[in-house]
Amino acid sequence: MFYTERQQAILEFIRRYQRVRTVAPTLEEIAQHFCLSKVTVYEHVRQLEKKGAVRKAPHLARSLEILDPHYKEVPIAHDAARLPLSVLGGIAAGQPLEAVEQEEIFDLGDLMPPGVERYALRVCGDSMIEDGIHDGDLAIIERRSVADDGEVVVAVLDDNEATLKRLYREPQGSAKRYRLEPANRRLSPILVDRVEIRGVVVGLIRRFSH
Question: Is there a single domain that holds both residue 193 and residue 106?
């Protein structure tokens, strides 16, 4: 079956997403990953349906099913000892960096208490180095949409770029402004009027070369 380059990329994203999450992505999540509009993604998925590559139930957000055997695989079941290295992918700790998908799986049972959803992100950059978070570290993230002042968070900015910083709220008249503070005295904070929190750092893993 012939697919366009974008259609191939979408099929691969769905496959990898299901592999680490055991559920299908929503159209919105696909759109965010590729920096496309939801309408554009809907059209790509509709063309894939016509080609018999996928199937989607009407009005169900996570009903995408891959039919093409080349892209179809049995999902990896999650348990307390398996941690996906992130669907979001590498996370910027310097200037904001568009996330890219990874598909490694790490066995980290002690960091996965029952009933708490966690995932791992690889740190890129040195803006949190004075907090002991180094380039190449794996940050263990507890998935949350809220955080207290001073917590190190995964923050997604308006341009769909992700960064790792300490979060502070700054009153600004009747409105609120957010300060994303690096832990590197050479860098300036990021000031934004709106921010989406994707989780809070609860642990760190570092690999040392031999």
Answer: yes
| Residue 147 structure tokens | 């955080």
Strand partners, 176: 171
Cα distance from N-terminal residue to C-terminal residue, the chain? 46
- pLDDT digit string, tens, across residues 3-20: 898 999 899 888 888 776
Q: Retrieve residue 196's tokens.
A: 């989406």
Q: How many domains does the chain have?
A: 2
* pTM above threshold 0.70: no
SS3 121: strand
Q: Does 77 reside within a domain?
A: no
Residue in the block written with tokens 């990896």:
76
How many other β-carbons are positioned within 10 Å of the β-carbon of residue 153?
25
Which pLDDT score is estimated for 84? 55
* Residues designated as active site: 127, 165
Residue 130 has what DSSP assignment? G
103 by Cβ neighbours in 10 Å (0-12 / 13-18 / 19+) ranks as middle
CB-based contact 24:62 (threshold 8 Å): yes
Whole-number Å distance between alpha carbons of 183 and 95 = 13
Cβ-in-10-Å burial (0-12, 13-18, 19+) of 92 comes to buried
Q: How many helices (H) does the chain have, and how many strands (E)? A: 3, 12
Q: Do 180 and 120 share a structural domain?
A: yes
Are the CB atoms for 151 and 202 separated by under 8 Å?
A: no
Q: How far apart are CA 119 and CA 88, in angstroms?
A: 10
